[in-house]
């Protein structure tokens, strides 16, 4: 999923949570609702920076980072140009997002439980929207073939 889509999903999720949850508090000060929503949007978009680390691990080079630094508009306008097929991988990306979620939520909970809930739900929505995006893009026979591979492994 592209950053603009994640920003929209994160905006909706964070805004809804700000309405239903108690106010977040950081360092003993109440955080403005707009700041919590901005945090949710930033989190929902910037969690995808892990793609660069995964691509570096899989390819052995920082070409994707170099490309974005030399073509900053592509990072926003045409994200399909950043990575080559196989640089990141669907399962690697999802695993990384889940690992980040599992580490970040307890760390943020030490600061504020409301903020931890926002963190967890925004990242959960990010992963769910990524999975939905990936499923929609898969040809029908690929999902069935994946099921066959999983049966063969068992």
Structure, described:
The chain is an all-alpha fold and 154 residues long. It has one domain. It is built from eight helices and two strands. It has helices at residues 3-20, 33-46, 50-59, 63-70, 72-77, 90-111, 113-137, 140-153, and strands at 25-26, 29-30. A two-stranded antiparallel sheet has the order 1-2. The longest helix has 25 residues, at 113-137. The protein is globular and about 50 Å long. The model has no long low-confidence stretch (mean pLDDT 90).
* Residue windows where pLDDT falls under 50 for at least 5 positions: none
Helix and strand pattern: HEEHHHHHHH
Rough shape? globular
Number of strands: 2
Query: What count of helical segments does DSSP give?
Result: 8
Radius of gyration: 18 Å
The portion of residues forming beta strands comes to under 5%
Q: Kindly state the mean pLDDT as a whole number?
A: 90
| Largest sheet features | 2 strands, antiparallel
Number of domains: 1
Q: Which strands sit side by side, in order, in the main sheet? A: 1-2
Distance between the termini: 31 Å
Share of residues in helices: over 70%
Class derived from helix and strand content: mainly alpha
Helix and strand topology:
Layout: H1 3-20, E1 25-26, E2 29-30, H2 33-46, H3 50-59, H4 63-70, H5 72-77, H6 90-111, H7 113-137, H8 140-153
Antiparallel strand pairs: 1-2
Helix pairs in contact: 1-2, 1-7, 2-7, 6-7
Keywords: Membrane, Transmembrane, Transmembrane helix
Protein name: Metal-dependent hydrolase
Organism: Natrarchaeobius chitinivorans
């Amino acid at each position: 999923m592209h950053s603009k889509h994640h920003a929209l999903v994160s905006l909706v999720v964070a805004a809804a949570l700000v309405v239903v949850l108690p106010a977040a508090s950081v360092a003993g000060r109440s955080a403005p609702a707009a700041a919590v929503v901005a945090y949710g949007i930033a989190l929902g978009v910037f969690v995808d920076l892990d793609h660069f680390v995964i691509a570096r691990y899989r390819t052995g080079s920082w070409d994707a980072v170099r490309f974005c630094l030399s073509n900053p508009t592509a990072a926003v306008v045409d994200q399909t140009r950043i990575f080559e097929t196989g640089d990141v991988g669907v399962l690697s990306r999802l695993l990384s997002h889940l690992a980040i979620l599992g580490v970040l939520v307890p760390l943020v909970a030490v600061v504020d439980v409301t903020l931890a809930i926002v963190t967890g739900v925004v990242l959960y929505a990010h992963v769910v929207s990524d999975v939905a995006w990936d499923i929609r893009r898969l040809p029908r026979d690929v999902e069935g073939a994946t099921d066959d591979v999983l049966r063969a492994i068992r």
